[in-house]
Inverse folding.
């Protein structure tokens, strides 16, 4: 194995203790859903409001691992930024930007392609799900995707990553990449990150099938609530949501083996801020015919101010681009020195412009 890095390899600096810093990302590969809101956005805002340093990214480089129409990608990136701000992200307190504006992500992503092992990547369930039987014909980027995600996080020495349940395996891989890099080069350079997967809505399910996650890429629009849906559409989708025929149970345990009922109760809990036990107590023995209108009312009350604010922000795309550019400058100022240290550690000569 290699010997510990010399100060020269460390870019002349000794590693700092890792201060708490949050990073997370969302793909601008479609409109955002209630799943993104409850599993990610809402919690991003809570973390910002707890006063932790927060960096949030629209990962456009990740989005093109599957085909994206260029005009739509631009639109969805701005819409994603508008959703962050409408949900409560303050671009003065959090850093908000799109990934491609900070080239260091792709640069560290390449280095991590050389750290991660084929076997690790081949075990990623999201790749297997997305590639399906078509694995010969998907992009190489889709396979390498989790190494770029590790780069997103580690480029900022982020210590905590709020995500939904579906990202757990990618965060384990991020830890493996950090550990292997540190071991291979004999440094204590990258932190081992903590996933933050918390709350009642870490996995919001499809409204049409309680065994599938709610997703912006599901072919059925009825399966999801989009942040851009109006009040009538939200109410209609909830009214038509698949359920069983039993009334709601008296105990949380009674939701077991009732995926659709469980999903609607979890959504109610996350939107209202009540615990699942409190929601079950309030609606014990209630028929869906009565519960669904209450859920629709709550969803509309929570989401319509966000939708309204998103629409207002989308009327001024130049302002959104300005916010993203400012965020990218601030992100770059943190990322560049860390990347330069990585280049020094790995033995790359960087004499240009010095
Ligand atoms: P993506 O839309 O795949 O870029 O996901 C962005 C963030 O939203 C990630 O933290 C996901 O884990 C989270 N997320 C996406 N869909 C859901 C869902 N149905 N339930 C909970 N969290 C979700
Ligand atoms: N892979 C994540 C998703 O599909 C998006 C993502 C990319 C991300 N880079 C990230 C999430 C870094 C957290 C941190 O949902």
């Amino acid at each position: 194995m290699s010997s510990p890095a010399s100060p020269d390899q460390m870019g002349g600096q000794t590693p700092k203790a890792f201060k708490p810093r949050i990073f997370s990302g969302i793909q601008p590969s479609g409109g955002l859903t209630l799943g993104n809101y409850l599993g990610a956005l809402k919690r991003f805002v809570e973390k910002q409001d707890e006063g932790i340093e927060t960096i949030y990214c629209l990962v456009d480089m990740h989005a093109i691992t599957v085909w994206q129409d260029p005009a739509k990608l631009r639109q969805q990136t701005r819409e994603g930024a508008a959703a962050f701000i409408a949900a409560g992200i303050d671009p003065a307190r959090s850093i908000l930007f799109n990934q491609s504006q900070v080239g260091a992500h792709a640069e560290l992503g390449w280095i991590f392609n050389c750290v991660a092992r084929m076997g690790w990547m081949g075990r990623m369930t999201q790749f297997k799900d997305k590639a399906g039987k078509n694995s010969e014909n998907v992009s190489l980027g889709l396979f390498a995707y989790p190494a770029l995600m590790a780069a997103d996080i580690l480029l900022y020495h982020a210590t905590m990553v709020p995500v939904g349940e579906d990202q757990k395996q990618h965060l384990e891989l991020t830890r493996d990449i950090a550990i292997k890099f540190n071991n291979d080069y004999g440094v204590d350079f990258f932190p081992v990150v903590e996933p933050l997967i918390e709350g009642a809505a870490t996995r919001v399910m499809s409204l049409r099938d309680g065994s599938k996650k709610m997703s912006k890429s599901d072919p059925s629009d009825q399966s999801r609530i989009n942040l851009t849906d109006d009040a009538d559409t939200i109410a209609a989708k909830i009214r038509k949501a698949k359920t069983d025929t039993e009334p709601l149970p008296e105990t949380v345990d009674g939701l077991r083996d009732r995926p659709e009922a469980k999903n609607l109760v979890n959504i109610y809990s996350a939107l209202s801020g009540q615990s699942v036990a409190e929601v079950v107590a309030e609606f014990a023995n209630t028929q869906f015919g009565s519960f669904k209108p209450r859920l629709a009312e709550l969803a509309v009350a929570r989401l319509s101010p966000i939708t309204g604010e998103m629409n207002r922000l989308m009327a001024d795309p130049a302002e959104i681009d300005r916010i993203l550019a400012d965020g990218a400058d601030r992100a770059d100022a943190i990322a560049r020195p860390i990347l330069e240290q990585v280049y020094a550690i790995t033995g790359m000569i960087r004499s240009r412009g010095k």
Observations:
- The CA atoms of residues 21 and 53 lie 5 Å apart.
- Residues 221-313 form a domain with the Tyrosyl-Transfer RNA Synthetase fold (CATH 1.10.240.10).
- DSSP finds 13 helices and five strands in the chain.
